[in-house]
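call fold target=Exo-alpha-sialidase
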Amino acid sequence: MKVYIPALLLILPFTGTFYPTTTSLGLAAQQDSVLNKKGDKPVAMNVIFKSVDGGDTWQDMSPRQISTVTNNTSSDSVQTEMPVFYQGSQSPLNENGVASWPAVAASFPRKDMRTVVETASGVAIIGCDGGLFKSTNNGTTWKQVYSRGGVMKIVESGGIMMAASPSGIIRSTDDGEHWEDVLSEGGVGIDIQNIKGGFASITYNTTSRTRRVRTSYDEGKSWQPVDAGLPASEFIASITEVGKYLFCGHPAGVFRSGDKGKTWKLLLPAVDGKVFNLSVSDNVIYALAKEGGC
């Protein structure tokens, strides 16, 4: 499966009615603080760390606001050696020389695209504020297959598709044609990820008023809590896997588990009260600090 983040998401903030999401680190290209008005000291912009050794060490990659004074006038510049993050891979042409899904998605009639997924069988699924749409003919026509609210994150493994929805986690076993609730705790789905042999999710539980972290190793039929070793919180942001470890972006910082979530260790403490959103590319972990995890 290939997952594409529409280019628009890399430069525009979210607009419209939707639930909090944590999956689109392509938004890292946005700055989440204003220029230093006084012009007298550096100001941290987005707080970004990366780890190339499974979380043992972290490198600060944060761009910084730099103020300079020339001829009695001040100016501000930003050092931006910050990577732009994508989910999956993308290419302008597929192996047959035909325009791939990022180009085909341009035929989509709505302007609220959040993610474009190409399944292993070549079907396209678009998640947007209005639900899920499917195309089986290279984007010539689109059929709505889910209409109960906005969907941003979709993953696929072994022919099973999972998505984070307003009702929790939903699943499709027929190339996105039909969707069913498989994990619902009263609140929205925050994150869904592929892990070895299954899936990992974050959902909001309206009874405990916390975000819960769970895993499934039977195609989403059952889900096991793996957050007993994490401080309870309503702002847990993301879950991912690298090698033999699970990683969780939490208000306290970045946690790691080497035993499938039975125990957790804090590796990278939180910065300025923000929550780290996690993204992985070629086993490099990126941690972007955002307000409230979103």
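return ok
Helices lie at 101-104. The first strand starts at residue 2 and ends at 4.
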